[in-house]
Amino acid sequence: MILVANSEAWPGFEKSVGLLKANTHGVDAIVAGISEVEREIKVRSVGYGGWPNMIGRMECDAGVMDGTTREVGSVGAVPDTLPVAALAHEVMKRLPHVMLTGEGARRFASEIGFPLDDVLCDDSRRVWWERLQKELTPEELRAFPDIPLAPLSRTITDPERVRDTTVFLSQDSARGIHAATSTSGWAWKYPGRLGDSPIPGAGFYADSRYGAAACTHTGEMTMRCGTARSIVLAMRFGHSLRAAVDMAIDDLAELGTGFLAGVVVHAIDAAGNHEVASFRCPGEIKYWFWEPKLSKPELRVARQYDPQHTTQRGN
Ligand code: ASP
Fold first, then answer.
1. What span, in angstroms and rounded, lies between the C-alpha atoms of 186 and 130?
2. pTM more than 0.90
3. Segment 103-112 long-range contacts (CB within 8 Å, at least 24 positions apart)
4. Is 196 in the pocket of ligand 1 (CB under 6 A)?
5. Is 165 in the pocket of ligand 1 (CB under 6 A)?
6. Which of 150, 171, 242, 293 is the most exposed place for a label (fewest CB within 10 A)?
7. What's the distance, Cα to Cα, between the start and end of the chain in Å?
8. Is the Cα torsion angle 51, 217, 202, 229 positive or negative in sign?
């Protein structure tokens, strides 16, 4: 058994550990942990502590993957709803679809009894509006939100400061490897913007035969590179976990156009190894780790991706 999650996971990590120890299916264990993270207002990137889009609405994204069946459920840009990782899990269990977005996801949530909840906390509302007041002219503020938003998305969106995700990867007692994610995405994002967190293959992927991966930070890059799937596929082709992660980050590093910033890659393999690597992120990145030989979860430091790494294709 193993559980890896990013530093934002603290409110729910022990819950997932407890459930894994009790032989709960890994998807149930990690969705339960993520629901705790979504409820915690002190986590300023997920659920109640998250950030609204440019027009002040919370639009949350989440994804869940069962690596044994390769079934996926995901929801994107869902308004007025928590918990969204649990909603993504319901998409997987109840529908012939993989992904629901926007009003359709909200409609499904109502059908299965998720309450309407604007999710937006007072502090996020205040910071959101103060930022707009700095950026917009008095005329624009009066007309807001009926003004062109696209020019603003270049200046106001601040992904380095106000964004993150929670990602959980587990191998359960039945050796099933699973992944789940949840985020409010970039603060001041353009309405309807999806990041990588609800996109299977980009923000998360799991295959119990080989391993799983999940990304945080710049979804605009991992969606272009299919990062999570790349890592698992490289392991299928026989690469070590570390080589698989380095090769996937090589692809991110090679991007030269578009929006470019940091990415953190989290990954586990079927042998119980794990890797968390930080690429172009300022400062030290931490993550949570647990395996049965540890008496309690540990907060560890991610390695920095080294462009001169020696894990080459073929290793
Ligand atoms: N990857 C997320 C997104 O692009 C945000 C983050 O993890 O910082 O929406």
1. 17
2. yes
3. 103/79, 105/75, 105/76, 105/77, 105/78, 105/81, 106/78, 106/79, 106/80, 106/81, 109/78, 109/81
4. yes
5. yes
6. 293
7. 26
8. negative
Question: Which ligand 1 atom is nearest residue 186's CA?
Answer: 9
What does the block give as tokens for 176?
């099933």
Q: Are 33 and 168 in contact (CB under 8 A)?
A: yes
From the list 68, 81, 157, 165, the catalytic residue is 165
Query: Residue 207, Cα to own-chain centre: how many angstroms?
Result: 17
What domains are defined for the chain? 2-304 (3.60.20.30)
Q: How far apart are CA 215 and CA 206, in angstroms?
A: 12
Distance from residue 212's CA to the centre of ligand 1 (Å): 18
Instruction: Give the model's pLDDT for residue 312.
Output: 65
Residue 193 beta carbon below 6 angstroms from any ligand 1 atom: no
Q: What is the pLDDT of residue 164?
A: 81
Q: What proportion of the chain, given as a percentage, has pLDDT over 70? A: 97
Three-class SS state of 131: helix
Q: What is the pLDDT of residues 120-167, one digit of tens each?
A: 999 999 999 999 999 999 999 999 999 999 998 888 766 555 678 999
Ligand 1 neighbourhood includes 76 CB (under 6 angstroms): no
**What does the alpha-carbon distance between residue 263 and residue 94 come to, in Å, rounded to a whole number?**
33
